[in-house]
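Q:
Just now I want nothing more than another pair of eyes on a protein record. Here is the record:
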Amino acid sequence: MTGMRFTPKGYGGHRRQPDEVKREGWKEQGLLAVAIDDDRLTWPERELIRQLGEKLYGKRPEGQGVRHG
């Protein structure tokens, strides 16, 4: 008898960091997930990301601040 399991076998353990998921998504599937407030981006790069987001998905609701964290 192996005891009680709370997760199915093979579904526990290591949880990938968000940047690791984003990196793999880019390299394997050509998907790009970018936070508009990413400190690694310059203002023109953030503005380009904002414009692309608005073109593809529409404007963000007024008063919705940029998330931090």
